[in-house]
Amino acid sequence: MFTRAIVRIPGSNFDAGLTTVDFGRPVLDLVLEQHRDYCKALADCGLELTLLEADLRFPDSTFVEDTAILTARGAVLTRPGARSREGEVDAMRPVVLDFFPSPLAIETPGTVDGGDICEAEDHFFIGVSQRTNEEGARQLGAHLRGFGYTSSVIDVRGMTSILHLKSGISYIGENNLVVMEEMADYDAFGGFDLIRVSADESYAANCVRVNDRVLVAAGFPRLTEELDAKGFKTLALDMSEFQKMDGGLSCLSLRF
Predict the structure, then answer these.
(1) Which of 11, 198, 216, 220 has the fewest C-beta atoms under 10 angstroms from its C-beta?
(2) From residue 23, how far is each of 20, 27, 143 by CA, in Å?
(3) Is 251 a catalytic residue?
(4) 164 part of the active site
(5) Omega within 30 of 0 (cis) for the link into 26
(6) What is the pLDDT of residues 75-93, one digit of tens each?
């Protein structure tokens, strides 16, 4: 069960952030509205929010998930793979210290984006991507072993359809792994009950289990209907403006 989440308000320069897609320029009023709805959803799921003000030094900083890995047994401060985002960890460090007094850290030359890390009970999938390198994955795996977790590495550098590993998979509890069709046959996922997401709904593979609800991106009815049919209580949120900047539901909070 999660009890807390850290979120950051998007800045007025949100549209100056990094993106690999061409879905148009985000509309700031909609960005802020969708972020407020997201925060309300977390609160409605029972979480106490630490709401951080916008940080105009870092246009991508509303995607707080990339700055830290927070677990029940300890925390790891990351080292984002995009140079323009490196300072976001320094800004997040004192916030994390309020809850985890002795966080570990990824050190140079390692890089890790939190969006490449998928926690499935006591096992972590670590994506090696254009943002998380092999050395970062090695360091994180060692830190997680120290916490008593296991991990495995999944190389997604050859995939052009996703930026981060968690753009394509989400663990939603009870051994259920939501996975985009392109990745569904990976051996690493063989022990899980797979909920496959078709190519035309692949963005929806990034969903988030928050206590007794599953947050899903609005506009992807087949996945939502399948989750509902399996007994999950879904809550659909409009993510259109964050999708324009490579963002998904998991990116917008650090949950613990």
Answers:
(1) 198
(2) 10, 12, 37
(3) yes
(4) yes
(5) no
(6) 999 999 999 998 999 999 9
